[in-house]
Amino acid sequence: MEIAGFKIQDIQQGYREGKFSPTEITKAYLERIKELDKGIQAFIHLNEEDALLQAKDVAEKIQKKETAGLLEGIPVAVKDNICTKGLRTTCGSKMLEDFIPPYDATLIKKLKEAGAIIIGKTNMDEFAMGSSTENSAFATTKNPWDTGKVPGGSSGGSAAAVAAGFAPLAIGSDTGGSIRQPASFCGVVGLKPTYGLVSRYGLIAFASSLDQIGPLTKTVEDCALSLQAIQGPDSMDATSYKERSAENYLEEIKGNIKGLKVGVPKEFFQKGLHGEIAKAIDKSMKLLEEMGAELEEFSLPIMDTALSAYYIISSAEASANLARYDGVRYGYRSEIFEGINELMVNSRTEAFGKEVKRRIMMGTYVLSSGYYDAYYNKAMMLRRKIKDSFSKAFENYDVILSPTSPILPFGIGEKMEDPLEMYLADIYTVSINIAGLPAISIPCGFSNTKLPIGLQLIGKPYQENQLLKAAYHLEQQLEIDTTIPALKEV
Ligand code: GLN
């Protein structure tokens, strides 16, 4: 069975027509992964036995016509920072190399309730810190479009899995761009929902006030369907939204975009933006206009401050969140120590990678007395300013449009020695997390060297429907073929 190009909707249709069973589909994906993932390394580990059991379960339900979950029989790859009961969850770190969670994250519960089949856990930058998936303690994921390039990060494994046809749906987490930037690098659709829309219970925290779980898929329709299945209030997460009833995203995306007001922030198109990316975005803007959307350039001068504020706030929160990994309660424990202090120091020294240590140092520094006001408090003031700038912009616009990343997928190893260069890859994405807004990245073209280019749409809080609608119409007009060239066995 040729599944590489399958979308969620193709599989669902196949089930309806009785063309194949959930077991056949699950087997086909697992086989493809086993055959080709050596060259991509999208997965840290597979969930083979359990996935086949789940598939059998779903098949029985379908036969008995019991329920029709939104993701019935859909294989899904999950980023390895989301807790899966009985299935190793490493967070890409030696610290949690052997960690088997005793519970399922709310996301996993929802996926299972919807009938999805968890086929494996995907590679990521350690504790979701990075933009290239090179910070994983286990492997470097390759970009399926060009295996010499990075897939983006930190959800690089999830993005690569969808691009490579290893799963029609993958789940990622986004703290400063980690769903959208890899989606852009791998030519897939990636959505970071409004902060609070998807429960974070069971997501291993990086920066709690910024982290958000979201889907990566091949199409906007698949994205809308997946969001429908995973969103919703959760009493286990105090920051999950309470008052809103679920929208029907899939139905709403087909609506008209005539008169949709699209703001184009000119600061997102200035120095540092790759020429070919600018060109592709330009083409999409013209298409939107032809469809009746009203585009307008405006000024959103947050770029210089957003990146600094992001790295201060996220590192501060990370340093607190990662304090629990001390070699005592759970996680890696050093074998060489005398006394409790040395146990903690040695465990952390041996099990955390370079980037994680850098963030912890930065975070404790900006939180230390004497520097707290100079850095952390300033960053919090900037956070307020950034939020206000977006709120003001949304008085005039329904959505804001920008590139997802200023650069094309870069070479493996190219930016590892220069963390600041690496941080710049997130310049268009971090401010959205700071403001808690939803944003989507969709493929909008290719470079001359056939590397994917992503376009970002940013929305008002809980207005995912507007984003998805604009993205859907653009996708229909663009008609980009995102099937990757055949992968080689290695
Ligand atoms: N690349 C950014 C960082 O390193 C964002 C990471 C993320 O969104 N998890 O912090």
TrEMBL record:
The active site is at K79 (charge relay system), S154 (charge relay system), S178 (acyl-ester intermediate). GO terms for molecular function: ATP binding; glutaminyl-tRNA synthase (glutamine-hydrolyzing) activity; transferase activity. InterPro entries: Amidase, Amidase_CS, Amidase_dom, AS_sf, GatA. It holds the Pfam family Amidase. The keyword Zinc does not apply. It comes from Natronincola peptidivorans. Its EC number is 6.3.5.7. This is Glutamyl-tRNA(Gln) amidotransferase subunit A. It catalyses: L-glutamyl-tRNA(Gln) + L-glutamine + ATP + H2O = L-glutaminyl-tRNA(Gln) + L-glutamate + ADP + phosphate + H(+). GO terms for cellular component: glutamyl-tRNA(Gln) amidotransferase complex. Belongs to the amidase family. GatA subfamily. Residues 24-468 form the Amidase domain. One of its GO terms (biological process) is translation. Keywords: ATP-binding, Ligase, Nucleotide-binding, Protein biosynthesis, Transferase. The keyword ATP-binding applies.
